[in-house]
Amino acid sequence: MEVQWLLVAHLLITLLVVVSFLCGQWPIFQGTFVERIHYFLTFGLYDYSLRLVGFVFGSRGKDAFHTVENYCCERPNPILQIIYLAIIGATYYISINSSFKYIPGHYVGNIHKYMSLLAVGVGVILFLLTSFSDPGTITIKNVSQYLAAYPYDDIIYSEKQCSTCKFPRPARAKHCSICDRCVARFDHHCGWMNNCIGEKNTRYFMAFLFWHFFLCLYGTVLLGFILAGRLKERRVIYILTEYYGLPNSFSSLFPHVTQWLLASHNTEIILMMFMLVVSLLLLGFFGYHAQLCLTNTTTNETFKWQDYLSWRRKLNEAKASSAALKASMSMMKNGESKPTESKWRAFCRRSPLQNEAVVKNNMYDKGVFSNMYEIVHPLSERSSFYRTKMS
């Protein structure tokens, strides 16, 4: 029994580390131990590792450490792609060895052997499609079309030249320092894909996220039905109630059924928990990017808008403070005195800063249907895009 509980503890710790690493910066975890674990995994661990390498190997060791870091984080490399293929391959292989011997079962038909293979195959195809597709690379040959397709809004985008590519950078584009190219409608650089996500391959990226959410959820439900079938076939509930005299209630049977599952099918339990957590994380990522697509906003633009709105709020505060200071000085100059105001009235009085709302004016948001159509059928793949150069 100790071994089973050790497996459960190992699983919970692994899930905590994964969730902390991927989601620890989310506002919901602010000020919690999940945020602290995320900080340690993303910053603290790196700092301690660098100090340890410097202490053991000296300056040469630090130089080698920085070389490896530059290759892994600053240059295109297939490390995370290999890790993805290893994860999905190992998960499917373990599922075959541990669970497929129970198919067909009481609740699961033989067709799921082939459906699972098809589902994994489609996921790998979407991964390869996203990884090796053109994200919308801007070159000297097509820059004029992209300049016409994406006008400047003069808020977060204004006319400027790319210092690396040496041509005007269209609105919504960004020069990726990792891939060393300008990408139209740049969203972000995805290390898992070893590719940028941009105008042309956002649709593949969204399909990848949704399909892998479905794949993990399908695997979780399938394993659940397999375990339910095993309980039925081995007559576990009947034995517990008839031979051991346990009441036929959830609270009485749950601990014993869980103990039997952990003892007989601990591999399936661990796989279920792993795929369930991954499916929830993928659902969160998909929902976030779906909301961006529906409003025709990119991840890169989200940060730009945050900076712009923060700057506008600070500017409004400065204007309000300046106006209040001028009014106070004018009153003092004229010998006037401001009537006293109770602290309670001053506390409840609406701040003048709240009268001027700072709003986001996204000119690229053309409505839900037009925004989605732009994702499915990018501007650069339309006939009007190529006619721009001739006009």
UniProtKB/TrEMBL annotation:
GO cellular component: endoplasmic reticulum; Golgi apparatus; membrane
Predominant localisation class: membrane
Enzyme class name: transferase
GO molecular function terms noted in the UniProt entry: protein-cysteine S-palmitoyltransferase activity
Catalysed transformations (reactions): L-cysteinyl-[protein] + hexadecanoyl-CoA = S-hexadecanoyl-L-cysteinyl-[protein] + CoA
Membrane topology: Multi-pass membrane protein
Pfam families the record matches: DHHC
Residue ranges occupied by any Palmitoyltransferase DHHC domain in the UniProt entry: 158-306
One GO-annotated biological process of the protein: protein targeting to membrane
Alphabetical UniProt keywords: Acyltransferase, Membrane, Transferase, Transmembrane, Transmembrane helix
Keyword Metal-binding: no
Record keyword Aminoacyl-tRNA synthetase present: no
Domain comment, as recorded: The DHHC domain is required for palmitoyltransferase activity.
Assigned protein family: Belongs to the DHHC palmitoyltransferase family.
Protein name: S-acyltransferase
Protein species of origin: Acorus calamus
